[in-house]
Specification:
131 residues; mainly alpha; 69% helix
Length: 131
């Protein structure tokens, strides 16, 4: 178990809570926009097929953004649970401590940098990309 000072725990807790609130607001806004955009093609006269396609693409993009935000929100909520349980900051792969600088930059991180690099390499992620 990683021991954080009270100040560090509060810092991570505040950072996670802030990002949680930001994501909830973004999701609500994008869902409202998507709902409006679904109504828009029927509510207004669309001058050509390109205009309708553009509206549909924008709606699809908003929903893709919402999906990404929901995934991040789940990761933030999981990090908040780990913080409450006392397991926050432990790498899920090797069990070692995740560097505080990494946690400050990405508080939902579940792996240390070395294990994350290996994970991405194995799964064909960023570090394993080939042309």
């Amino acid at each position: 178990m990683i021991e954080f000072s009270a100040a560090e725990r509060e810092e991570f807790s505040a950072q996670l809570a802030l990002r949680n609130a930001e994501l909830v607001a973004e999701i609500e806004t994008k869902l409202a926009q998507a709902k409006t955009e679904r109504v828009a093609p029927d509510a207004v006269s669309v001058t050509d097929g390109g205009d309708k396609a553009l509206l549909e693409a924008a709606s699809g993009l908003n929903l893709a953004i919402v999906r990404r935000d929901v995934e991040e929100l789940r990761a933030i909520e999981a990090a908040q649970a780990r913080l409450a349980e006392g397991t926050f900051g432990s790498c899920t792969d090797c069990g070692e401590a995740i560097a505080c600088d990494r946690l400050r930059a990405h508080p939902a991180a579940i792996r240390c940098a070395a294990c994350q690099n290996e994970f991405e390499r194995r799964s064909g992620g960023i570090h394993g990309a080939k042309l």
